[in-house]
Amino acid sequence: MEQLERFRQKAAEYYTQKVRMHGPSPRGVDWNGEESQLIRFEQLCKIISAVEGESFSILDYGCGYGALIDFLKQRYKNFDYTGFDVSEEMITQARNLYPSYRFTSDERELSPHDYVVASGVFNVKLDVPS
Known about the structure:
Layout: H1 2-22, H2 34-44, E1 56-61, H3 68-75, E2 79-84, H4 88-97, E3 102-104, E4 115-118
Parallel strand pairs: 1-2, 1-4, 2-3
């Protein structure tokens, strides 16, 4: 458990540095650009089977600054979004950009959702041994 906590702390520091350097943008969450971020969102959201007008809930695990919300709003009218990130700076940015949505950095505040997506959490190895 201690190793997992060290990794979370390093990941939080890494992403905090990225968002401070690049702001709430694809580069701020360590994507090459908006196009690669959009492609990722399209792939992640293929799992959503909600028909037009149907409500669903989604947990964005590793939400960064909450950019998935804009993607979802273009495609769905009725969803309940929760964003989780280990970086408090990311959560602050997300809350500023999307004040009507729920964001947290405390896993104990998470509850079951219809869908859970995790994108960036699998992209950074840092110095953790294989």
